[in-house]
Amino acid sequence: EITKEQQALMKVIVDAYNKHQIPQDVTKKLLQEQYSVEENFLLLTEMATNQVQVLVEFTKTIPGFLSLDHEDQIALLKGSAVEAMFLRSAQVFSTKMPNGHTEVLEERIRKSGMSEEFMTPMFNFYKSIGSLHMVQEEQALLTAITILTPDRPYVKDQQAVERLQEPMLDVLRKLCVLQHPKKPQYFAQLLGRLTELRTLNHYHAEMLTSWRMN
Amino acid sequence: PGNSIGLEAIIRKALMGKYHD
Q1: Helices (H), A61-185
Q2: Tens-digit pLDDT profile for residues A105-121
Q3: Closest Cα of chain A to B19: distance in Å?
Q4: pLDDT tens, A161-208?
Q5: ipTM over 0.90
Q6: Nearest-CA distance B11 → chain A (Å)
Q7: How many alpha carbons lie under 13 Å from residue A202 in its C-beta half-sphere?
Q8: Chain A contact for B12 (CB, 8 A cutoff)
Q9: Contacts of A60 (CB under 8 A, 6+ apart)
Q10: From residue A174, how far is each of A7, A112, A201 by CA, in Å?
Q11: B11 vs A contacts (CB less than 8 Å)
Q12: Which residue, A121, A153, A155, A209, shows the most beta carbons closer than 10 Å to its own?
C-alpha cells in the first residue's frame, strides 16, 4: 500500500517531471526539413544543453536535494546528466508519435556523424526501455533515482544522498507491484535498466570524441 | 561547438537560475 506521504512525494516528482520539458519550439526543429550532418550535430548539441537545463530544474524540485552540500549537488548532476538524458530520450522512442516522427528522429540521430558502434547500444537501450511500457510515474521516479545515486564521483556525503534516494526506491517498488501485479520481476527489471544506463554513460565520453572527430 | 561550454558550467549556471549567460 502506498501511504499518503508517498503519494505526495510521487506527485511532486511527476508534476516536476512533466513541467520541466524541452521547449516545443526546440523539439519542433528536429522534425523540420532535411539538414546536413553538421546541422544535425549542432541541433542535437543544442538539445543536449537544453536537456541539462531542464534536468537541473527538475532536480531542484526533488525534496531535500537543495539541502545537500552544494558541491555534492553538482557532483550528482554531473555524474547523472548523461544517464538522465538517455532516459528522457528513450521516452521519445517508447511513445507512439504521429506521422512517423519517431522514424524522422531516429534518421536524424543516425545521420549526425556518430559512429555506428555507439549508435547500436544506444538504440538497443531505447528499445529495451520501450519494451517495459513504463507509466509516467515510473519514468519520473526512475529519473530521480538515477540522479540520486550516492556513489557518483566526488560525492562527499553519500549517506545524505542515500537518505533521499531510499524513499524514492520504496515508492517505485510499491508502484511496480500495483501497476504490474502479474509481473513480479518488473521492479528488478527497471533497476536492471539502470545498470545498462551506467554502461552507456561509461562509453559516452568515447562517443563524443568519435562524434567530434567525424 | 562554436561556443562550447562544459557540462559543469551549464549545471552551475542552471543551479543558480542563470540560463542564457
Answers
A1: 70-94, 101-110, 116-130, 136-147, 158-179
A2: 777 777 777 777 888 88
A3: 7
A4: 999 999 999 999 999 999 999 999 999 999 999 999 998 888 877 777
A5: no
A6: 7
A7: 7
A8: yes
A9: A66, B15
A10: 11, 40, 28
A11: 52, 56, 74, 77-78, 81
A12: A155
Chain A residues closer than 8 Å to B14 by CB: 52-53, 56-57
Is B16 an interface residue toward A (CB < 8 Å)?
A: no
Beta-carbon separation of A74 and B19 below 8 A: no
How confident is the model at residue B1, as a pLDDT? 37
The C-alpha atoms of residue A19 and residue A17 are separated, in whole angstroms, by: 6
Asked whether the beta carbons of residue A60 and residue B15 sit closer than 8 angstroms, the reply is: yes
Digit-coded pLDDT (tens) for A76-87: 999 999 999 889
Check whether A66 has a pLDDT greater than 90.
Answer: yes
Where b means 16+ CB within 10 Å and e means fewer, A111-141 reads ebbbeeebeeebeebbeebbebebeebbbbb
C-alpha cell at A208: 563524443
Residues A2, A7: Cα–Cα separation, whole Å: 6
Q: Is residue A41 classed as helix, strand or coil in its secondary structure?
A: helix
Put simply, whether B19 touches A (Cβ < 8 Å) is yes
Of the candidates A41, A53, A60, which has its C-beta nearest B10's C-beta?
A: A53
